[in-house]
Write a structure and sequence with these properties.
The complex is a heterodimer.
Chain A lengths: L9 H5 L3 E3 L7 E3 L7 H9 L5 E3 L5 E3 L9 H6 L5 E3 L7 E3 L4
Antiparallel strand pairs in A: 1-6, 2-5, 3-4
Chain B lengths: L5 E6 L3 H11 L5 E4 L14 E3 H5 L14 E10 L4 E7 L10 E3 L2 H14 L3 E3 L4 E6 L5 E6 L6 E8 L6 H5 L11 E10 L2 H8 L5 E9 L7 E7 L3 E9 H7 L3 H10 L4 H4 L3 E11 L10 E2 L2 E3 L15 H21 L5 H12 L2 H8 L3 H7 L1 H20 L6 H32 L1
Parallel strand pairs in B: 1-2, 1-10, 2-7, 4-12, 10-17
Antiparallel strand pairs in B: 3-6, 4-5, 8-9, 9-10, 11-14, 11-15, 12-13, 13-14, 16-17
Chain lengths: ~100, ~425
């Protein structure tokens, strides 16, 4: 007997969550760069919401809409100045139903 | 917005913030609590297990109306390789007591309840308000906060930073360092819903009994990490976490680890047919005693995860958070009732009281454990689980091989993998870190 365990892509998992997106006011920004550091590149794999992606010029871009505000990217890349991290405005961002 | 001055401002409505706000407000202090989420709990993530004793010391009759899921009667520790687990179970009917020792909870619901208690105790709780900055006087004393709402500084004698592991305020103000990649773990979690009776059948539980599974081994792919599966009333919280530094160097994806854990033959049948309703991520402070920052200063104290108060070895976080919040509240109340100013010298009382509590004593006991597990992660999370499985399987299979040969083969496998010296030194290191 095979036992089904629902498998979801990260993008689909994020749809399960509730967000109030602050349109036009992303709380995390990647600073313009020529060549991303290893930590910044690692975020394309390590960010649990898959917010970071490499563009075709080999630079890292962020779409913060699905961000779960864990802070992993801040811990890895804020000190080097590659990203700028703030909390979303009060009430905005991810809103966990269970947590 | 708010013209008056408060005795205390608490930043954050998680476990430590609610404990601090409740402790001070219930003693008659004028408290303002600020929370950036839409409601208390909306930004908070935990496994989650809540220990009764630490909450009882704050709200003794919490069992009357707190949203509790199940009380744990069984704990399983699993050492996993790719197809097996070698486990230790402890199950006791003694845990079916009138006032159970620990419960599973769902934080968004629990935090709403706790926050209601804080408001009933007389504190002003303001949600959807992100504190943007600490306000200082000319001598550097913290005298209040600025928020993203209109209005100027909100003043208070003391600010309690209960802003969580990723707290921006304290680090930006230079009160403590940023968490380092090797002192925080990234954990991801899913909520799997199943009918209550199905959970009861699968785990052998009746009524509100609960089962807790914690698992380590090849599931973390050589990284320092732990997976867990906790039964709630009609859901299962299931997750895995590893050190951020390990994630960065291996570039493993947390969601891939979680999916592999769910597919593991030991886990799959437990969650089969479930409906996933939420996916969360959170950092967990893992640095232990050596990562505790400066805990107090002129006009401020820091509590809970923001102060790295988490016992990773025993997987206790929220009880240290609640206790540090309560102790901070009690210390501030003592200073306040003497009519003394909230200076660094006076607020040192908080640290003295915390040092004398289980919080710092427990973290001190395991002060060497984080570094040991980090530097030897491959052995503890890959080699040994695989060897344990081999030994157990060798022992279980009856195939006509004389037992003495089986024993020799098992011993040889251990020595081949780690050498005699390696085995002894791992054991000694572990014993010393544990002692």
């Amino acid at each position: 007997m095979t036992i089904a365990v629902a498998e979801l892509r990260v993008e689909d998992k994020l749809f399960l969550n509730r967000y109030l997106v602050d349109a036009g006011g992303p709380h995390i920004k990647v600073r313009p760069h020529e060549k991303p550091s290893p930590n910044l590149i690692a975020l394309t794999r390590v960010c649990p919401a898959k917010c970071y992606e490499l563009n075709d010029k080999g630079q890292v871009e962020i779409t913060a809409d699905g961000c779960m505000e864990c802070g992993t990217c801040r811990v890895l890349c804020e000190a080097s100045g590659e990203i700028e991290w703030n909390y979303p405005r009060g009430g905005f961002g991810v809103l966990f139903k269970f947590g | 917005m708010i013209e008056e001055k408060f005795d205390a401002i608490v930043i954050g409505a998680g476990m430590s913030g609610n404990a601090a706000a409740y402790t001070m407000a219930s003693r008659g202090m004028k408290v303002l609590q600020l929370e950036r989420g839409e409601y208390p709990g909306s930004k908070n993530v935990q496994g989650a297990i809540m220990y009764a004793d630490m909450l009882e010391k704050i709200i003794p009759d919490f069992r009357e109306d707190a949203p509790l899921e199940r009380h744990a009667v069984e704990q399983r520790f699993w050492m996993m390789d790719d197809t097996s687990h070698t486990g230790m179970h402890y199950r006791s009917d003694d845990f079916n007591e009138a006032m159970p020792n620990r419960y599973t909870i769902i934080r968004a619901q629990f935090d709403k309840w706790f926050s209601r208690k804080v408001r009933e105790a007389g504190a002003t709780v303001l949600c959807e308000t992100t504190v943007t900055e600490l306000a200082h006087d000319t001598k550097g004393k913290v005298i209040g906060v600025r928020t993203d709402r209109a209005g100027d500084v909100i003043f208070a004698d003391v600010v309690v930073l209960a802003e969580g592991v990723n707290g921006l305020l304290g680090t930006r103000a230079g009160l403590r360092e940023m968490p380092k990649p090797e002192t925080v773990a990234l954990a991801v979690k899913e909520m799997h819903f199943l009918p209550e009776e199905v959970i009861g059948e699968r785990f052998g539980l009746k009524g509100n009994e609960g089962c807790v599974i914690e698992a380590a081994g090849t599931i973390s792919r050589g990284m320092t990490g732990l997976a867990f599966l906790y039964t709630n009333r009609e859901s299962i919280s299931l997750g895995i976490g590893c050190l951020v530094s390990d994630f960065a160097s291996t570039t493993e994806s947390p969601y891939a680890l979680l999916d592999a854990f769910k597919r593991h033959p030991s886990v799959r049948p437990l969650i089969a047919g479930s409906e996933v309703k939420e996916y969360t991520a959170h950092l967990i402070p893992e640095g232990g005693y050596k990562a505790i920052p400066q805990l107090f200063g002129d006009g401020w104290v820091v509590v809970g995860d923001a102060a790295q108060l988490n016992n990773a070895v025993h997987r206790e976080g929220s009880n240290l958070a609640m206790t540090s919040g309560r102790i901070a509240g009690e210390a501030i109340f003592q200073i306040n009732s003497r009519g003394d100013p909230m200076t660094k010298e006076n607020l040192a009382l908080y640290k003295t009281m915390l040092d004398n509590s289980f919080v710092v004593k427990d973290l001190m006991k395991y002060k060497d454990m984080p570094v040991l597990l980090h530097t030897h992660s491959r052995h503890f999370f890959m080699t040994y689980p695989q060897l344990m499985s081999l030994a157990a399987q060798n022992f279980m299979r009856v195939d006509g091989t004389p037992k003495i040969e089986k024993e020799k083969a098992t011993t040889a496998a251990f020595i081949k993998a780690r050498s005699r010296w390696g085995l002894v030194s791992d054991a000694v290191r572990l014993a010393f870190a544990w002692r």
